[in-house]
């Protein structure tokens, strides 16, 4: 049986309250669980002691039995010092979507065209002045 230590949601609409539970991974999120290990109330301030409560001994027991914590619970365990901190690389999350990439390409093309246009008239003005001086110099004796 694949065990998970995860959050089970409770509370009313827009007022979440979570129970930290040990359950079979095949059970629904808010369904049957084997043991309640603690609570998590995200509405409380981050420095509040009441925000996250866990029975550390029971959590360590379930980890010893092979239970895998979910990402959020693993973060709680790392903060409590029960689990070693792991390196996370969420490369896909920070990458912009297709529409944002298209907008960036169009903006870059517009800026390149504007820079080119700004440089081009300055160069043509100088050549036009050189050309007018050379033609005016040959016309007047």
> What's the shape?
elongated
The CATH first-level class of the largest domain comes to Alpha Beta
- Biggest β-sheet description: 5 strands, mixed
Report the radius of gyration as a whole number of Å.
32 Å
Structural class determined from secondary elements:
alpha+beta
**What is the topology, as strand order, of the major beta sheet?**
4-3-2-1-5
User: Averaged pLDDT, please?
Assistant: 83
Number of strands: 5
The amount of helix comes to 40-55%
Query: What name does CATH use for the topology of the largest domain?
Result: S16 Ribosomal Protein, Chain: A
CATH superfamily of the largest domain: Ribosomal protein S16
InterPro entries: Ribosomal_bS16 (IPR000307), Ribosomal_bS16_dom_sf (IPR023803)
Pfam families: Ribosomal_S16
Keywords: Ribonucleoprotein, Ribosomal protein
Protein name: Small ribosomal subunit protein bS16
Write the layout of secondary structure elements.
Blueprint: E1 3-12, E2 15-24, E3 35-40, E4 52-54, H1 56-64, E5 68-69, H2 71-80, H3 91-94, H4 98-139
Parallel strand pairs: 1-5
Antiparallel strand pairs: 1-2, 2-3, 3-4
Would you mind describing this structure in some detail?
The chain has 4 helices and 5 strands; from the N terminus they run E-E-E-E-H-E-H-H-H. The protein has 141 residues and is an alpha+beta fold. The chain has 2 domains: 3-86, S16 Ribosomal Protein, Chain: A (2-Layer Sandwich); 94-139. A 5-stranded mixed beta sheet has the order 4-3-2-1-5. The chain is elongated, with a radius of gyration of 32 Å. The mean pLDDT is 83.
């Amino acid at each position: 049986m694949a065990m998970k230590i995860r959050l089970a949601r409770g509370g009313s609409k827009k007022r979440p309250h979570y129970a930290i539970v040990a359950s079979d991974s095949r059970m629904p999120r808010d369904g049957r669980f084997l043991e309640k290990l603690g609570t998590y109330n995200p509405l409380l301030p981050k420095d509040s002691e009441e925000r996250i409560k866990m029975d550390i001994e029971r959590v360590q027991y379930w980890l010893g039995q092979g239970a895998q914590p979910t990402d959020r619970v693993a973060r709680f365990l790392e903060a409590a010092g029960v689990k070693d901190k792991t390196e996370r690389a969420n490369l896909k999350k920070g990458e912009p979507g297709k529409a944002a990439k298209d907008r960036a390409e169009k903006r870059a093309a517009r800026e390149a065209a504007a820079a080119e246009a700004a440089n081009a008239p300055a160069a043509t003005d100088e050549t036009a002045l050189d050309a007018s001086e050379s033609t005016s110099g040959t016309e007047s004796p």
